[in-house]
Structure formats: C-alpha cells, structure tokens
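Hi C.,

You asked whether I'd gotten around to modeling the 216-residue construct. I have! Everything is below, sequence then structure, no commentary in between.
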Amino acid sequence: MVRKIVVMMAALGLSLGVATTASAQGIIVGGEAGLNVANVSAETGILGLNTDSKTGFWGGIFAHFGIGPIFGVRPELLYSNKGAKLTDPTGEVKLSTTYVQIPLLLEAVIPITDSPIRPVVFAGPAVAFETKCTFGASSGGVSASADCDTAGLTERASTDFSIIFGGEVGAAVGSVIPFVGVRYDLGLSNLDASDDPDSIKTRTWTFYGGLGVPLK
C-alpha cells in the first residue's frame, strides 16, 4: 500500500512539473474539508437491496496551476470516508471504508467582469487507495463492529478508480480566496473481487468549503 502511494505521488509530482513548466498563469494552494454523503450501487447480491447513504469526513489539500486565463490543472491529496448502510425493522448494518484519494482535475473559471466572485467548474479522474475498512451491525440496542477482514469481507478491491465532476463559488477577500463547492464522485471500479463478483461501485456526493492562497 505504501509503495502504491509513493508511486502515485511521484507521478503526480511529475505531472505538476509539466503543468507548471507548460504555461502557468497563476498558482493557488490551499485546503478544503467537508462532508461525504456516500452510497454504493449494486446489480445483485445483498447490497443490491435499497441501501441508505452514510455520511463521513472528507478533506485535504490542493494546488491550482493556471493554464491561460480560464483553464487550470488541479491535483489534490484527500482523505475520503465512503461506504453505505442497510436498515430494516430488525436493525442496521454499515460498511465504512476510508481512502487516500488523488484526483487530477481540469478546471474552468467562469469569468465575471468587475467582480471578485470566482465560479469554477471541474472534472477529472481520481484514484483512491483503501486505508481502513470496518463492518458494523446493530439490533435491539446492541451494536458491534469489526475490521472487514475479521468480518470475512476479504474479497474486495483495495483500489478505486473514479470520475469526479462539480463546481465551486469563491470570492477574493484580501489575499485569500474562501470558497464553497459540491462534487459528485462516480466510482468505476468493481469493489467485489470474488471469483463470482457482483457489481458494487461507489457513489458519493461531497459538500465542502475551503480556502485558497494565490502564490503567483
């Protein structure tokens, strides 16, 4: 797992160097944090029942490298908690997975003449590496949880590829840019790695805010 993250960070660093050298028209760095509203889609199996969304923390750091007056490249390094839960009259079961996620987004700034408002739309791929997985159940006021491996959920994919798209609205306030945004994370990887897999993929809405600091 550590080796995978190191390789991805090296590739990310190379892409940043290329983007910066190509024609950087502005650099913004900052942090962001918010709430994941996560679920899964499944064609068959127990998770093919109507699952409920679960909430979890989302946050990390980013850098924006401007390419021309409108477009930019935005790599991010994020902590993202996903999963799903299933509730019936007898109780509730919950799957919680935590990832280190690395998106690489293409941004487009929507120009507004003579205004500090900075609307942005973006889209791009992301890769996420599982760092923790827990499975819990509760019924009749009694609850228990365990690591997914201990619970028998060993045949699962630990890497999740996805496509992210969304938008933000920020405004220049002095030397910083506070912003709020919403994004949708569409999982492409089948998380069921068994010999007879069902199709189980992540689906996540994220609502967040952050602060950017222009460097150039």
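If it helps when you're writing up: The mean pLDDT is 84.

Thanks,
B.
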